[in-house]
Amino acid sequence: MKKNDRGKVFNHKNINKFRELGLLGFIIILSIFIQMRNPNYLTLENINDLIKNTAILSILAIGMMMVIITRGIDLSVAATLALSGMITAMTVRSYPSLHPLLTILLGTIIGLFCGAIIGFLVSKMSILPIIATLGMMNIYRGLTYWISGGKWISSYQMSTGFKRIATGSILGINNLIFIAIVLYIVAYYFVNHTRTGRQIYAVGSNPDSAKVSGIKIDKILFLVYSIMGVLAGLSGVLWVSKFASAQSNTATGYELTVIAACIVGGVNIAGGSGKISGIILGSLLLGVLKNALPLIKVSPFWQDAIQGGIILLAVVVSALVKRSVDRNNLIRREV
Amino acid sequence: MSEYILELKGVTKTFPGVKALDDVHFQLKSGEIHALMGENGAGKSTFIKIITGVHQPDEGEIYLNGQKVDINNPRDAQKLGIAAIYQHVTCYPDLSVTENIFMGHEKIKKGTNRLLWNEMHSEAQKLLDELGATFDPKTRMGELSVAQQQIVEIAKALSTNAKIIIMDEPTASLTKSESEELYRITEKLRNNGTSIIFISHRLEDMYRLANRVTVFRDSKYIGTWEVNEISNEELIVAMVGREITQMFPKKEAKIGEEILRVEKLGKIGFFKDISFTLHKGEILGLTGLVGSGRTEVCQAIFGITSPDEGKIIFEGKEVKIDHPLQAMNLGIGYLPEDRQKQGLVLEWSIEKNITLPALDKVSHKGWLDKEKEVEIAQALAKKVNVKAKSIYDLANSLSGGNQQKVVVAKLLTADLKVIIVDEPTKGVDVGAKSAILEIMSDLASQGYGIIMVSSEMPEVLGMSDRIIVMREGRITAQLSREEASQEIILEAAMTKKRSVNTA
Amino acid sequence: MENTDLTAEKNFDLKSFFFQWEWVLVLILIIVNFINTYLSPYYLNTYTLLDATMTFLDKAFIVLPMTFVIIFGDIDISVGSTVALSSVVMAVAYNLGMPMSLAIIICLLVGTVCGMINGLLIVKFKELSAVIVTLSTMTLYRGIAYTILEDQAAGGFPEWFTFPGWGYVKGIPFILIVFTIFAIIFALLLHRTTFGRQVYAIGNNAVASRYSGVQVNKIKFIVFTLAGFMSAIAALFLTSRMGSTRPNVALGYELDVIAMVVLGGVSTSGGKGRIIGTILSIFIVGYLRYGLGLINVPAQVILIIIGLLLIFAVMVPNLEKYFKRKKTKKAF
User: Fold this and answer.
1) Which pLDDT score is estimated for B52?
2) What is the CA radius of gyration of chain A?
3) Which of C199, C212, C216, C272 to mutate to test the interface with B (most CBs of B within 10 A)?
């Protein structure tokens, strides 16, 4: 079996490492480039700002990663985020004395509800994830407009306590960043060290085998969309608190940024694989781009085009790499 | 305590229309390697599925250590210590070796629900070490070769404390050195007290490994022998059973000029150095074990895949075929192996299926002419004698044999010169079988060149003018009708000797 | 013993003729219009019925090729962005001093190229699903529109360019006439030509189609290109009606279009559906929107209703399976 060790330089494990190192290298090179164009980039203040802005994106990326691992996709995250943010903000407006933790709980429950509906449609009704989430995205967005009457909730209508969710800090770390770190630790533990977490990968890697192994596929699908909903609901509260405004068009199109962060971070769009470390880097890259474009005087209107280009590039490159690995494996086979 | 760890008595299993196992007996001694042999369709797969709980027998009893047991599902089988390793490994390519070994019976810390990775990795390492594997249990499954994946499957079986391991043609897609490795592991398992049922088409596997051999034929139990007490010839006679008494509708055809020639055709990882010629009016049998590269060669000629090297010469001109449409336009037709997946649109009527490859014949400038379509489909369906109420019946309402006739009718829509048929009679009843073979014989006598891929020995011998035998992606024998015999073909298909005599 | 000699004629089954999804759609269409009449006494006259079509027929052009795409079992969610990009490029081209006729040709070209890019990526990279390809080009195309116009509007088209969106020919809206022509072309293409037959074949069984000599890649490429081209046609009418354009026009068109196709009885698992069904559902959704507008239901609530419509349309065929599964589970 010795000879199979030949050509091992070019296997999946190395490619994943290479991808992550490459991504990190790219982020560093990009940062140096930006720094050369604008020295205000690598200041403590800006970096803090950058990470704070990336926190919400990275939280959403956790859920999206799990969804994509099961071979699904969720277009409704931004709409869920907006709905949860709006309802929470309206509640805060009416009950300013509400404890900030309760507002977080409220948003999370709304998100759970939104996610569970999608989970039901996908797992029990066998509706394609793209169709189910496209439909629910519009329903949630419509609901947000409807309940708010299209009006904004602005900073002055929110209690200080609520706004402090995003500005306050725990142990000297900004709350948003703190929450993201905690969630990442929990998620890392969940997907790597619990049976259910590993079953998510099993379902995406080979649904037929999963069935034979006795894994309840329905349950896993329902779970991942519910988790996605919970994280989107939580992000809604954080978002509204951070920007101190709730609008019915909050985060429109943000689902694509989240999907981009996952795909750039090496989550396989065909399901089965994706790593926590990857999506941290993926979120970071998109966060850096968003933060840096205005600094180097690129119009913010380029954001979408760049993002679309990045997703496309990432999927095409990983498809090409996979092809060459497969070909290499065939050559190793002796006829 | 019984002498036998596993014993099957009078097991019968019937599927709609087919008797897959007919009063079969089997006795497995504790700590032996028991070879199970038989031609394709002899009932071996059904037999495994009964032992592993995928199917339940209609009649008969299963005894484990002398105790009568019911195996109602795969989980029961696992609990009873029975595990199976298949030729096509079913695994999670994205997950690590360790996870593949422990999926479904992970080690978990009580109370916290935490997976005990270290324990699982070291246990996996131990299992792999025992099996002499050199790869790391943290490797992704998808990176391993088929042989290594099989070792993982064996490790998985051991991790569930399996006492009986069934190996279903494990060597079919392995190279020589990989097979050697597998032999070593299998013997080691036996020495550790595991009982093994080893299913294979290769005689060398049996001689190398087995203590005893049982032969099935036509869903029936034929006999069990000590390996060192049965000769090669006796064994083959037991498997094949009879001289060919079946009549094949082979008509005399005038063998004409050369129509197709392939030279040194090769595709990385599938086949290499394939050269042969086909003449008008000739039926060229292409045989060998499943997985020997027969189908892949045909698919390359038909343009489903593209070969990496070599030439295809059609009617004296070198041609490059990138798409089935090009092959069909040249005059090469292909009857695929899997009629349900590759041959038919099951939700469609017979009529629409028949005309799909010949839409330009039932249309004017792209506009469908439904009258003409019905006319052509009706004529062809009659010609191949499809049994159905009307040509508007859906393909999925037909029996296997009639479905296959529809696929044959599809071929006849085009002006072909060469027809490649891949397992044309697989899973069809006797009546349809002879009808299909008769059509082929007719076509040959009309001057078509026919390549017939088949695993059925009598069919190959009865129908072919010349026979090519493949093994592991290479041609191992080219035989004329006169010199061919079952023994020679089986020998070329199953044993290692490489004697390439290109015609 | 039944006759099995292939002689039976294709019999006209009255029951299955009436139990077709299209009749349900006709019924829904009548109900929608009935409600509209009830809501507004001025509604039910030919003038209003015809006039209403002008408000919703632009996206109907995309429904036609989308029917083909979904029959494949694929999806194209970049169509809204294609509309935006071709509309913006047309406006910019005109404002750069090109004659309007040339700008229109450019608009059609841009849409076609967008579709070709989708088609090429989907055909060349089989490991990528149409979902992910069109998801990224959706962002990309609209992103490009933003880089061109940022948050500006562009317009100032010549007087005659209002005609496509607002004009009449002998009392019939011009857009309705053009749509009817396209609808007939697409219906004939799908149901009467070898091309359409092959589209169904691919949707039902792409592998068997390939073995039967169907050029799967070529046909898929053409269909995605057609989706781009028809999006450009939609862009023409939309821009004409609005008089100016912005990068955020046609936002969410993909939802309406996909909802119409699915409601029209085209299965998302591929292989099934007819143009007549999708045409009926265009008018159902269109008149529904129009009627809800009459009673001043806000656009966002309409969004909810369309979303629900989409979910229910895909759920109906699956519900039966779901309950069957439940039953068998209980039986064990």
Assistant:
1) 86
2) 21
3) C212
